[in-house]
Design goal:
Helix content: over 70%
Largest sheet: none
Radius of gyration: 20 Å
Structural class: mainly alpha
Number of domains: 1
Number of strands: 0
Shape: elongated
Number of helices: 4
Strand content: under 5%
Distance between the termini: 18 Å
Order of helices and strands: HHHH
């Protein structure tokens, strides 16, 4: 008989928030690309500084980490959280950023699903270790 995971609710909250964050970001990314092509006659990337392009690439890695976390919670959550931290740090050096004071709030909103995945992964790992300790080694001898 398979035992139910007591932390499954945390996993589903992380999944739902992660999917919403990926969808929200992709929605705005596609809109920005389309608007940029209209504004710059097809050369939208030419208007961005190298720092902004690096931030975009790392942000994409963070989103890929959220997608990976659907299957591998620990690895995907770690990749995503580290990438969001790098984006936050790089954004501090961005002179074009208009909202430096609210950057920590935005960082926390976007990294919440990564944190939830890591919390779930840690709690699940501890639960599996605890049940393995309580389970007898050889059920025939018991």
């Amino acid at each position: 008989m398979k035992k139910r995971n007591p932390y499954n609710w945390l996993r589903w909250i992380a999944r739902i928030t992660g999917i919403l964050i990926v969808a929200f970001t992709l929605f705005f990314f596609v809109g920005e690309i389309m608007e940029g092509q209209q504004r710059h006659a097809g050369s939208a990337l030419a208007s961005y500084t190298p720092l902004i392009l690096i931030i975009f690439v790392i942000w994409g890695i963070a989103l890929a980490g959220l997608v990976l976390a659907l299957w591998k919670e620990g690895l995907g959550g770690s990749i995503s959280l580290v990438s969001y931290i790098l984006v936050y740090i790089l954004n501090l050096f961005n002179k074009e950023a208009s909202m430096r004071g609210n950057a920590i709030t935005i960082f926390l909103i976007f990294s919440i699903s990564s944190i939830l995945y890591l919390v779930y992964w840690k709690l699940n790992k501890d639960e599996l270790r605890k049940t393995a300790i309580l389970k007898p080694e050889n059920p025939d001898k018991a």
